[in-house]
Design brief:
heterodimer; A: about 120 residues; mainly beta; 7-stranded mixed beta sheet; 4-stranded antiparallel beta sheet; 11 strands; globular; B: about 110 residues
C-alpha cells in the first residue's frame, strides 16, 4: 500500500524551530518529486515547497523562503522540512504529498499523508 | 503569480442533484489543473488531473472540463459521501489552489 506518514509537529514559540518528517512506503521513493503543503486552521491549501526526485532542485513559496529547507533521504525513504524562525502565521497542518505527472513537465499530487499539526504560539 | 478563483464559495444541494463548480485562472494554464476533495480533518483526495482525466478509483459521476482560464468540476448525481470541500489547483507555474467550494446538504 502506498503510504505517507508525517511526524514532528508540535507547539513551538515564535522564533523557534521544528523538523517535520514524512516516511514513505509502498513505492519507489527515489523516483518521485515530493511536496509540502500546509493548511492554516479553517483556511485553504497552500503550497510550501517541493523537491525533485533526485534532490537536485528545490523550490519554496515566498512566505517561507530563507526560513524553511526541504530535503530527502533516499536511504531512509523520508522527506523532511526544517522550519526555522517560525512565526505565528506558520501555524497549520502540514501535509506531505507525492508528485505525479502525465508528461514529465507538469506535476500534480496523487498521494497525501494525513498531516502533522504545527502550532506557533 | 497565478491566482485561482472558485465559485461559488458554498453550494447547498440535495442528494441526486447535478452540481457544477467553476474555477478561473488569472492567466492561461492550458489544461494543467487538478481537482481535490477534502473532508473535515482529512487530507485532500485527488479526483481529476490534467483538467479532465479521472483519477483511478474515483467514481465516474465526477467529471472535469475546460482549458485556458476556465474550468468546471461536475458531479452528475450528488451522493451522501460527496458532501465536502472541493479545491482546484493549477500546476502550470508552481502551484496555486483555489479558495475552496463547500458542498453542503440543502
Amino acid at each position: 500500500e502506498v503510504q505517507l506518514v508525517e511526524s514532528g509537529g508540535g507547539l513551538v514559540q515564535p522564533g523557534g524551530s521544528l523538523r517535520l518528517s514524512c516516511a514513505a512506503s509502498g513505492f519507489t521513493f527515489s523516483s518521485y518529486w515530493m511536496y509540502w503543503v500546509r493548511q492554516a486552521p479553517g483556511k485553504g491549501l497552500v503550497w510550501v515547497s517541493h523537491i525533485y526526485s533526485d534532490g537536485s532542485s528545490t523550490r519554496y513559496a515566498d512566505s517561507v523562503k530563507g526560513r524553511f529547507t526541504i530535503s530527502r533521504d533516499i536511504a531512509k525513504n523520508t522527506l523532511y522540512l526544517q522550519m526555522n524562525s517560525l512565526r505565528v502565521e506558520d501555524t497549520a497542518v502540514y501535509y506531505c504529498a507525492r508528485g505525479q505527472t502525465s508528461n514529465y513537465n507538469y506535476y500534480y499530487t496523487d498521494v497525501w499523508g494525513k498531516g502533522t499539526t504545527v502550532t506557533v504560539s | 503569480d497565478i491566482q485561482m478563483t472558485q465559485s461559488p464559495s458554498t453550494l447547498s444541494a440535495s442528494v441526486g442533484d447535478r452540481v457544477t463548480i467553476t474555477c478561473r485562472a488569472s492567466q492561461t494554464i492550458s489544461t494543467w489543473l487538478a481537482w481535490y476533495q477534502q473532508k473535515p480533518g482529512k487530507a485532500p483526495k485527488l479526483l481529476i488531473y490534467d483538467a479532465s482525466s479521472l483519477e483511478s478509483g474515483v467514481p465516474s459521476r465526477f467529471s472535469g472540463r475546460g482549458s485556458g482560464t476556465e474550468f468546471t468540476l461536475t458531479i452528475s448525481s450528488l451522493q451522501p459521501d460527496d458532501f465536502a470541500t472541493y479545491y482546484c489547483q493549477q500546476y502550470n507555474s508552481y502551484w496555486t489552489f483555489g479558495q475552496g467550494t463547500k458542498v453542503e446538504i440543502k
